[in-house]
Amino acid sequence: VQLVESGGGLVQAGGSLRLSCGASGTSIIIREMGWYRQAPGKQRELVAGITSSGITNYADSVKGRFTITTDNAKNTVYLHLQMNNLSSEDTAVYYCNIKGWRVSQSYWGQGTQVTVSS
Prior knowledge:
By secondary structure, this protein is mostly beta strands. It has no helices and 11 strands. It has strands spanning 2-6, 9-12, 17-24, 30-38, 45-51, 56-58, 66-73, 76-83, 92-100, 106-108, 112-117. The strands form 2 sheets. Strands 2, 4, 5, 6, 9, 10 and 11 form a 7-stranded mixed sheet that branches. A 4-stranded antiparallel sheet has the order 1-3-8-7, with no helix packed on it. The radius of gyration is 14 Å and the shape is globular. It starts with a strand and ends with a strand.
């Protein structure tokens, strides 16, 4: 399974970014997908997740500002994160993750940097 992220960058506070993650080689049955982030000196945290049945969940800090969606094209599953009204506290490396039904089936992207200037 290969996960390739894109869409990070530098944005001013109040601005928007859209992250995307393409998952190819997905021979597993996907149970859930999610976006995580890790700021300097902090633990990696779940930002938003979506199950195979479309149920979403968000960290309290991003509710109402971030939206997670998925779509499919050919043999690739895409995971997106629309981020609006960004603040400096959203600055972090963002990682996409997909999980299968087995505990060992957890795959990570390489991470994409999001920097919000105040």
